[in-house]
Specification:
It is a single chain. By secondary structure, this protein is an alpha/beta fold. It has helices spanning 32-47, 70-78, 93-98, 107-116, 146-172, and strands at 20-26, 52-58, 101-104, 122-124. It has 5 helices and 4 strands; from the N terminus they run E-H-E-H-H-E-H-E-H. The chain has a 4-stranded parallel beta sheet with strand order 2-1-3-4. Strand 3 (101-104), helix 4 and strand 4 form a beta-alpha-beta unit. It starts with 19 loop residues before the first strand and ends in a 6-residue tail after the last helix.
């Protein structure tokens, strides 16, 4: 079991794992955050040369127990990513404590997470995308059609290289950047 470091960029203490933990967070945990989790996992298998684990959660419990939205699953499958086994849930204190990085999809997620987890490394997804405007969130695709899920996947894909670079900096002890 991973325990929280005193700061997200600290090296592990004896007995801690050196696997970097990332939790992606949106509102209901059926669209954006599970998409980010599955995309990060899939790309990590091909592109990440250091240990990392990825999960997702919501800030709300209104979708608890539900699978990933069928439109999100369709988008993920079309891009070659896995989609199975997801069960929506609200983020827990244990998940926050075990995370080295918590990535919110919109500013209101980041604000809520920072209030509930002072001292945690909470970032907006777009902070990892050099082409994104400062403060740019990932709009909720739930209210629209498939094209919203395509845009969500593109925004996540654009941020993954920055997230992986952050993880690599942590692994080499140079995690103060980003």
């Amino acid at each position: 079991m991973t325990s929280r470091r005193s700061r997200a960029h600290d090296r592990p203490e004896p007995g801690e794992t050196d696997t970097f933990g990332v939790v992606f967070v949106c509102t209901g945990n059926i669209c954006r955050s599970p998409m980010a989790e599955f995309i990060a996992r899939g790309r990590a298998e091909r592109e990440l040369d250091v240990p990392a684990r990825f999960s997702s959660a919501g800030t709300s419990d209104e979708e608890d127990g539900n699978p990933v939205d069928p439109r999100a699953a369709r988008q993920l499958r079309a891009a070659g990513y896995a989609t199975g086994g997801h069960v929506a849930h609200r983020i827990t204190g244990a998940e926050i404590a075990a995370a080295d990085l918590i990535v919110g999809m919109e500013e209101h997620h980041v604000r809520a997470l920072r209030r509930s987890a002072p001292g945690a490394d909470v970032r907006l997804l777009s902070e990892f995308d050099p082409g994104a405007r400062p403060g740019q969130g990932v709009p909720d695709p739930w209210y629209g059609g498939q094209e919203g899920f395509e845009r969500t996947a593109a925004a996540i894909e654009a941020a993954i290289p920055g997230i992986f670079a952050h993880i690599r900096r942590f692994a080499t002890g140079a995690a103060d950047a980003v």
